[in-house]
Amino acid sequence: VPLPVPRSCLFSESFVVSVSSQSRFLASVPGTGVQRSAAADMAASTAAGKQRIPKVAKVKNKAPAEVQITAEQLLREAKERELELLPPPPQQKITDEEELNDYKLRKRKTFEDNIRKNRTVISNWIKYAQWEESLKEIQRARSIYERALDVDYRNITLWLKYAEMEMKNRQVNHARNIWDRAITTLPRVNQFWYKYTYMEEMLGNVAGARQVFERWMEWQPEEQAWHSYINFELRYKEVDRARTIYERFVLVHPDVKNWIKYARFEEKHAYFAHARKVYERAVEFFGDEHMDEHLYVAFAKFEENQKEFERVRVIYKYALDRISKQDAQELFKNYTIFEKKFGDRRGIEDIIVSKRRFQYEEEVKANPHNYDAWFDYLRLVESDAEAEAVREVYERAIANVPPIQEKRHWKRYIYLWINYALYEELEAKDPERTRQVYQASLELIPHKKFTFAKMWILYAQFEIRQKNLSLARRALGTSIGKCPKNKLFKVYIELELQLREFDRCRKLYEKFLEFGPENCTSWIKFAELETILGDIDRARAIYELAISQPRLDMPEVLWKSYIDFEIEQEETERTRNLYRRLLQRTQHVKVWISFAQFELSSGKEGSLTKCRQIYEEANKTMRNCEEKEERLMLLESWRSFEEEFGTASDKERVDKLMPEKVKKRRKVQTDDGSDAGWEEYFDYIFPEDAANQPNLKLLAMAKLWKKQQQEKEDAEHHPDEDVDESES
């Protein structure tokens, strides 16, 4: 019999299934022969369909239809028309006990079948037990829970449902038994303990609840469990018991926050002495290695509430001296607030100093050889600390010796020793320690590689201030013997000069000149000393010895000093000879000019003539000089001399010797030899130079041609004036 097919079921698998199920149903249900034949016919037609494949109709128009229907639309229409909704099963009303037993039997069989299919699905066990509980079959429900626990005794939900069932049905002893088994089997599940203690407390069995808590605490549970026990005791005003629990709690969980809670518990119940002891025990317990700022902040706030301001200040300072800066931000903040509320200006300054001290401590810990940080730290400590504390910081600083023995690495380090010695002398007023500091620093410096003259000088000056002249001389003598330097010689000589020990000065100068014979200044100072002492011959001998040295650092200064010395002694001939000797070594223009000025200033008869002769000689000598600017300088000096002392003919003569200034160009080359263009420069052409005569003649002809061209241009611009002049 063909069945009507709904449009929504054309592409549905459920339709095929429903058809096949209907056929099986008709074949299985006992009835009339018509029904059987219909089923047989349908089966035969199906078998024939399998054998004979119908022809597929050819689609002539393969273009898409105007209205497209998707599978989603088909399913949505089927849902909207409710074509596949099944009617709800009919409600069955049980009227007698037999039907009830039959219903129970079927239900239990269903539950047992589900359990038999998969024993590990605990939800099936729980549903089964709850169904039995709903029928008031408590014994059966217990049996089901016990069977389930045999399957999975680690399931927390199973234990909870089991115990809740017993409590709902007021089976207290059974519930206790279940909780005991649960906490014995799974002691780390806190939920069992919470439920168990709550049940005992609700039943009013305080002793039993306490006993359960004690059993729980033996397992050392998490912090919340301890707090629950403490709150339980406080609900019944058992403060001593709560204190005992806290004592055990802070040992099992030794965190700072737990010690603080313990102390606040004592403070809340007005046991202030106990609270202070708790804080003190906490500080001692954590020690210096595990210090925490929160503990000290809480301790300080407790003392602040007790109006113990001095104790608060001591606590803050103690903590700040031992906790690193990055871990003490909250501590600094609270200390500052406290000082602003209860302290004076001095206290606020102490906070700032301590904060900066921590900052410097961190810097020097990060880099012990950062001497600038040590300097800043020492300045801070010196401004506000006792002598012992300052000495301790100095000792820590000077212990960081530079690892490399090079002077550039020691330049900053040596000032630590200098500042240390000055502090001991000026601030601490301890000369003996100052002497020890100087001596230790001088022993530390590797004098064979380099030295610091300032350390020797400062030590010697310190001994002089202490009126120990022998020690000062010994220090300077040792310095000259170990590591002679110009500065050490100068200071030692200056010291002996002030003491008027001239023989010692002579010996020192001799040593000085043996050490550095090229030092012109030392030669000059030695000669000046002999001049002051009135030993002219000795001074002259020193000058002679000096100018005979093969190498000098400033020979011009030495010659000038020697010449000035002879001028002061009014030794004109000696001075003239010195100039001649100097001109043999150098032909510098300044020497000639100075020589001429000397002859002019001598004031003797014929001085002008001698001066003019020197200028003429210098001019002749410098003709071959490549430095034309120096020659020009000489001529200008000569011209100024003739303008002041010479006649008109002398002036004209010098003017004829003055050069012409011309502008020239020359090629410029870079370092690699490539051309870099042209540059202009000024050159001087002297009339005296025979080689330059053609150049001067050409220059004169060029000037004449330029003048003629200028006159010609003027005549072209004013022709009428030329006619009038010709007529006239």
Automatic annotation (TrEMBL):
Q: Which key words are in the record? A: Coiled coil, mRNA processing, mRNA splicing, Nucleus, Phosphoprotein, Repeat, Spliceosome
Instruction: Provide the Gene Ontology terms for cellular component.
Output: nuclear speck; spliceosomal complex
Q: Does the keyword Nucleus apply?
A: yes
Residues annotated as coiled-coil are 608-635
Name a Pfam family for this protein. Answer: HAT_Syf1_CNRKL1_C
Q: Where is the signal peptide?
A: none
Q: Where in the cell is it found?
A: Nucleus speckle
Recorded superkingdom:
Eukaryota
Pre-mRNA-splicing factor Syf1/CRNKL1-like C-terminal HAT-repeats domain: which residues? 123-407, 428-580
Give positions of region: Disordered.
707-728
- Record field: compositional bias (Basic and acidic residues): 708-720
InterPro entries, sorted: HAT (IPR003107), HAT_Syf1_CNRKL1_C (IPR055430), Syf1-like (IPR045075), TPR-like_helical_dom_sf (IPR011990)
Biological processes, Gene Ontology terms: mRNA splicing, via spliceosome
Family membership noted in the UniProt record: Belongs to the crooked-neck family.
UniProt function note: Involved in pre-mRNA splicing process. As a component of the minor spliceosome, involved in the splicing of U12-type introns in pre-mRNAs.
Q: What is this protein called?
A: Crooked neck-like protein 1
Q: Per the UniProt entry, what species is this protein from, by scientific name? A: Homo sapiens
